[in-house]
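[recover] target loaded
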């Protein structure tokens, strides 16, 4: 794994960090400056560190005031109103076609459709912060520096094969896209992360074709309940979910492959007995989460730090979703306004095969007095938008 990714990642990955030792050492250092509870102001922290007098402390606070960042004669903000009222004012100047500069030729060779594709493929598109201030009303049970907070990026599952993009009639690489950003505590076990990762594959219905009796909601048929197996691959070790008797060890087949091909793997441990703080990982390195058989996600540890005074210091809030990448919903093929909840196949009354319908259209268009009015297969459908 490390050998494969090294050539792509370059300097963006840290060296391996032993989080436990690192933060024990770091905490003892900052306790000298910030005090044991870590809740004093920055100016006092400086004072503790350098032994300032009160007068020197005031001079420092005045000299380093954030107000000093204001320039003496700030430039007035540009009036952007003409952009909307007179768009022609800022129209692009067409590139001269007979110019031999490579930059100009490159611009000319790009169609507008290509430019649209570049924007759509950006991995930073539309991430929204979901953290609210509600935690301030809850009872805090942690002091600053009590625990370690790790920021983890969960990527949407993606296939490494190339995808055909019909719209632009060419083959494009589908780039990995961050789907969730989570905060976990070092004192938490890995199974809490497994439970916090929202993937539509965990919410699929396992009953198959239910067209004969689609509105019978007896029993739990979510794939997560039926197939609870999951595995993280961090460092060179496997961490498997063993909380349910039906959990399988996904690392077995990988070990067999490793033995045949001379690849040496580390240990297989259980998620619920492994703590984040005990991990030894590289920040920025792509690790793996696997569940539902073949659904694989890249996981990246973005940073690790001591919990801050201004963080939500309520332990039961973690793992905390800090950001979620909005996805496009699949809307009903009939009304076009509600998110689809049914996938219908082999139906002569519908123009698309498969068709995606909301519950109202599905019931109203394909059933009469609770009976099917024609032959088709119907599967319960869970859209990613419904869970993220
Ligand atoms: Zn998944
Ligand atoms: Zn509908």
């Amino acid at each position: 794994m490390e050998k494969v990714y090294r050539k792509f990642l370059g300097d963006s990955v840290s060296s391996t960090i032993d989080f436990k030792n690192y933060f024990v050492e770091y905490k003892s250092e900052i306790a000298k400056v910030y005090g044991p509870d870590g809740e004093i102001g920055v100016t006092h922290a400086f004072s503790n560190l350098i032994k300032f007098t009160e007068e020197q402390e005031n001079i420092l606070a005045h000299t380093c005031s954030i107000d000093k960042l204001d320039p003496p004669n700030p430039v007035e903000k540009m009036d952007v109103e003409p952009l909307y009222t007179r768009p022609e004012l800022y129209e692009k100047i067409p590139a001269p076609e007979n110019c031999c500069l490579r930059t100009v030729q490159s611009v000319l060779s790009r169609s507008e459709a290509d430019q649209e594709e570049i924007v759509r493929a950006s991995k930073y598109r539309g991430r929204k912060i979901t953290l609210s201030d509600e935690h301030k009303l809850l009872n805090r049970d942690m002091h600053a520096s009590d625990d370690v907070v790790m920021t983890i990026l969960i990527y949407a599952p993606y296939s490494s094969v190339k995808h055909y993009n019909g719209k632009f009639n060419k083959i494009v690489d589908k780039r990995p896209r961050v789907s969730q950003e989570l905060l976990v505590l070092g004192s938490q076990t890995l199974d809490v992360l497994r439970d916090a990762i929202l993937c539509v594959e965990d919410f699929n219905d396992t009953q198959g074709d239910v067209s004969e009796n689609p509105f019978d909601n007896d029993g739990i048929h979510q794939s997560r309940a039926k197939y609870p197996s999951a595995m993280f691959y961090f460092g060179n070790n496997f961490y498997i979910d063993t909380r349910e008797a039906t959990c399988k060890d996904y690392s077995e087949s990988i070990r067999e492959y490793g033995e045949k091909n001379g690849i040496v793997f580390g240990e297989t441990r259980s998620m619920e007995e492994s703590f984040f703080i005990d991990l030894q990982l590289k920040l920025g390195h792509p690790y793996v989460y696997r569940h539902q058989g073949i659904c694989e996600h890249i996981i990246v540890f973005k940073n690790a730090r001591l919990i801050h005074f201004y963080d939500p210091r309520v332990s039961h809030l973690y793992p905390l979703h800090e950001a979620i990448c909005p996805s496009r919903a699949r809307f009903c093929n009939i009304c076009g306004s509600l998110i689809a909840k049914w996938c219908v196949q082999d139906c002569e009354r519908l123009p698309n095969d498969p068709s995606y319908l909301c519950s109202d259209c599905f019931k109203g268009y394909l059933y009469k007095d609770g009976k099917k009015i024609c032959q088709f297969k119907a599967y319960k459908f869970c859209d990613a938008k419904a869970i993220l």
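[recover] notes: The chain is about 25% helix and 20% strand.
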